[in-house]
Amino acid sequence: MPQEPLKGLIHSYETFGAADGPGVRFMVFLRGCPFRCRYCHNPDTWAGKGGFAATPMEVLDRAIRYREYWGEKGGITVSGGEPMLQAPFVAELFKKCHDLGVNTCIDTCAGVFSRENADIRRLLDLTDTVLLDIKHIDPVKHRELTGADLAPVLDCARYLAEIGKPVWLRHVLVPGWTDSEADLDRLAAFVRPLSNIERVDILPYHTMGVEKWRALGLPYPLEGVEPPSEESLALARSKFFHFPY
């Protein structure tokens, strides 16, 4: 019998991503995520079902229509959901991207990372830049915030440093949750020795995903939490002064 073509489970596309990797990006949002972040602005991507299936070539054919807008640095970013959950599919997509000279990025929380997983290692080899989200540096607070273990995330960060993979580190500043100066100092201390970090983005918490929670019939866990002040953002960013952002 003929082998079934490899397909990924897609949530949606965005044609002009401006903050998810170098240059202008074609964004591919996948379905399925192991995290349940209290502030998630895409809870509709959590379930590993629904959406639509597409082959790597179908995704690339759709993306390449916009190549003239990408400039020298742009390309394709796969987000989620969690790209590592569909590592064989994303790796095959990125192999085809590289055949055409297209820059590749993933945006990952790295919660399913394992050095023993050959599919994930291949995916990372084929990724030009990793956008790595570290939600919290404290293991207990990380689990309370995301429902998931911190250890794979930090091991992924170390692994990416070992293989010299360029990383943009992302950390969402949530008042009362991730804005403790002590925790920020711990995160900065963890990041400082990693020579592959190209930039650190301290992202302000926002409430733009609240309506999605309500549409899904889910209570929003951070009801009443406001975005951080400019002073709080400035303090957090000052902890990473040795990195651009």
Helix content: 25-40%
Distance between the first and last residues' Cα: 52 Å
Number of helices: 8
Instruction: Please identify the structural class as seen in this structure.
Output: alpha/beta
Strand percentage lies at 15-25%
What topology emerges from the helices and strands here?
Blueprint: E1 8-17, E2 25-30, E3 52-54, H1 56-64, E4 75-79, H2 87-99, E5 103-108, H3 118-125, E6 129-133, H4 139-146, H5 151-162, E7 167-173, H6 181-191, E8 197-204, H7 210-215, H8 230-238
Parallel strand pairs: 2-4, 4-5, 5-6, 6-7, 7-8
Antiparallel strand pairs: 1-2, 1-3
Helix pairs in contact: 1-2, 2-3
Give an account of the 3D structure.
It is built from 8 helices and 8 strands. The mean pLDDT is about 95. α1 packs across α2 and α2 runs parallel beside α3 (about 120-125). The chain has about 240 residues and is of the alpha/beta class. It has a single domain (about 10-240), classed as Aldolase class I (TIM Barrel, Alpha-Beta Barrel). It has an 8-stranded mixed β-sheet with strand order 3-1-2-4-5-6-7-8.
